Records
---
Amino acid sequence: MSKIKASTALVNTLKNWDINHVYGIPGDSIDTIVDALRAEQEAIQFIHVRHEEVATLAASSYSKLTGKIGVALSIGGPGAIHMLNGMYDAKMDNVPMLVLAGQVPTSVANTKYFQEVDLPTLFADVAVFNKQIESAETLPDIVDEAIRTAYEKKGVAVLTIPNNIPLTEIKNTVKPKREVYEQIKPEIATETIARAAELINSAKNPIILAGVGTKHAKETLVQFSEHTKTPVIISLPAKGVMPDTHPNFLGNLGKIGTKPAYEAMQEADLLLMIGNDYPYTDYLPQHDVTCIQIDIDPSKIGHRFPATVGIVGDAKEALTALIETTDYIAKREFLEASQENMANWWKWLREDQAKTGTPIAPEAVMASIQKIAEKDAIFSIDVGTSTVWSTRYLQLDHQNDFLISAWLGTMGCALPGAIAAKYAFPNRQVIALAGDGGFSMVMQDFVTAVHYKLPMIIVVLNNKELSFIKYEQQSAGELNYAIDLPDINYADFAESCGGLGFRVEKFEDLEIAFEAARTAKRPIIIDVVVDSNAAPLPGKIVMDEALGYTKFEIRSVLEDHRFSKMPPLKTIIRRFF
Ligand code: FAD
């Protein structure tokens, strides 16, 4: 039998799984693998990023968008440590990722050698598969097992590879091509469907909370809602599963959510939790309600809220079965009341978006984005106030995608997400939205987008502060501290990287910048100087928050000897009562 280098066998295994690109940074302890990737660059593109954190955040985002495994690599030691953040993002948002980490050669292993870090220990908490390679012969099989495990357990598989091992010649055993991984769906018990249908038929005020587990079931969700006249609320990362303009849609639930969603939840007599593991239980009904939960993972049934009936299975299959077994409802008062409530909510939001003054209102920027967004645009959103403005004001349809670091909530995720989106869907428009805090954490990788010719629109909401933290401090009754950010001209930065840049300081200039972005062939940053007093208030202000703002104002006077700029009273009153 012919022989090949173990590194070539590794790359062949990646090709077998249809992996066509890898994010990373080369370097000594991973260079034997990088060399094998060089030889196969037509099949697997190496995306050379500027920070390893961006490599794993991009790999995680690619996986969220496509369902396919994202791959990142780095040297051991510092590079491996940098990768941790994106690895946790994949772990917590339950998506498959493969990480290849270099390691010092076996001849010097365990000698406290240069850059030698105990990587299996470092990765023990984040990985679902975590092996240090001991022999060249086993490398291809272990890579294969790593990928299978990452898909099956929806998590991160890590291989730590001493740099000498990939150079060893091994037998060239060609494996059959792997089929794209398909999750096995549990068979849904017909008696649970029958029991759930009874509960739905007898409910007066049913409500749906739909999550990430309905992303593949968008049409069926709409059909079920229309068939039973049930209002739909979604979790934040599920944005887009229900068109924002659908009359049965009440938006998100939680601090970022809408007031109608909060109120409908508290009026409901039946809660249908579909494909979500919604964490903020204070926003779920606080009274006795019947609950039907649908989840593919049996361990999630009753995890956050007591389930009267648990349907273990795929959301699309369960909803299809429920459409067939439940009564058609022609009219439901609860839905109509919720719709009326929602019409008011949209009226308030439209008022916010109509602001034409300077400093520019972030809500107005959302209107500008909406104007140029294409039907199937992918939105990559950062963590911070950009999360609030985008979730609340952007109107998505079924063809859009919405990317975010939902569970880890890491700042700096928007740009890596946009890079990944261009590799996942090169022909779709990609719009990233970040605050200056989040963007400046990863801004070096704007040059990656320029270098690889990935046209994308990056909107930086520049308020020269960590605004989300500012309002967190205020609503907790704390005085603001350590939230200021020195100003950076991100448009100049974009130009210096070879991209396009627009700095917008006056409302009148918004349209020019966004019109330029619409047709730009290069990555573009629109650096919008926004009103730092635009408060990302919760949709429904609860008593604790109202008391927190009051305490903050009193402390400002007594300890700082000044009146602070509070969020507008009119908005607070609207959202409190
Ligand atoms: P997951 O936790 O990923 O749950 C998905 C569920 O679907 C899992 O139980 C899974 O087993 C199941 N599933 C998967 N596939 C299927 C299938 N085929 N069929 C059936 N079930 C399936 N979130 C909010 O909702 N409101 C907020 O106000 C909010 N504020 C946030 C603010 C910030 C700054 C950030 C960063 C995040 C915020 N989040 C908010 C996100 C929040 O932290 C959680 O990540 C989110 O609520 C979880 O959504 P989920 O339950 O749909 O997703």
---
Amino acid sequence: MDYDKKMAWFNEARFGMFIHFGLYSLLEHGEWVMYEERIPAAEYAKLADRFAPVNFNAVALADQAVQAGAKYMVFTTRHHDGFCLFDSKVSDFTSTKTAAKRDFVGEYVEAARKAGLKVGLYYSLLDWRFPGYFEPEKYPESSQAMVEQAHAQVRELMTNYGKIDILFYDGGWTAQADLNPERMAAFWRARELNDMVKSLQPGIIINNRSGTLEDIDTPEQRVAASQAGRGWESCMTIGDFVTWGFVRHNPNYKTVPQLLQHLITAAQGEGNLLLNVGITPEGRICNEESERLNAMGQWLRQNGEAIRGSQRCELIGHAVTGQVDINLQGPWTRKGNIGYWHLFRWPGREAVQILVDTPVRKVTLLSTGQELPFNYDKASGKLRIYNMPFTPPDSAVNVLRVEFESEPKRRSERDLAEWITA
Ligand code: H79
């Protein structure tokens, strides 16, 4: 399928909700606990006997995503510990064959669809239960068995749950921390794997973590724009960067303004934010994360126009590859001839944007519709916006909607000293 057509919903969405849930959730030491604490596979497997999250409610999760203003979700079908939240013919280490006796992936997919959300599946290629993952040369058969398992399980996920919109591979690197894409692709037979995925799910968006480039880049715990025309998605936790799985006592949750600033920074570079929730042992989203998501949703209901389907804006923050640049007040997004100035710091009565090369027609405060007087001086390229409220109407981020005569362009300077004698 044509790339731009395939990517249309993704680029309209800009915001998704990531869900980390698995056996590790029971221990509350993060999703890496099996490896970090070197828990032998047989001992770790006992967790499955008491993994029966009575409060896991996929409908509630989908509701939460809708409340947050997310347009899609990505769910951990299986993390590095190898425990499947779906039924698998090639593994007994699944939630359907142990205490829970539930196919959480099936429940999730159905709820997401019903809520009108696009459906994403996360799948970790590596599986810590295989010695061949850590020592492929010493245990070549185990290593091969792990690769076979990945192919078989990805096939199951792409076959048994209807239309899947996005596939988030993870864990393609080797235990020796080899991140070379060609070697990763060769190890996982990624070309063959992804040909199979695309034949089963035409139009699916696949990330870049199996070794082949596929459709989107995936900066983790940071926002970084790819080159224009290439889709990308930054994934991030609401709490500490060290854990995606739930931990009970976490003093380091990001604030709502910080979270919105990450979302806006992604939107400025034509990319998405995939914001994670760590599900509690009982199967819920904790209050700290829920409150923040709800506040983001409230903001998006008033300001979503500046985010959904955003394009790069030349004025400031045109987000060159691998970089995000902002001015003191904050970055611009754009849609056609409309620029959206996201004020991360409220400038008080007057806002000034320099190097504007395109005449301005109208300025409003996006959330209230209040029209603001302005002066645009073509000669200097200075846009002044007056009579703004002394205190910021929104306590997090305020957006000025600036209608230009044509697509806003940045004025070039004759030399760096030009402004001094203007
Ligand atoms: O699911 C979440 C994390 O558990 C997972 N990705 C997100 C979405 C993740 N797994 N690992 N990492 C993130 C960090 C990767 C660290 C690595 Fe390495 C450093 C991989 C290669 C070098 C650790 C050290 C593993 C091998 C050597």
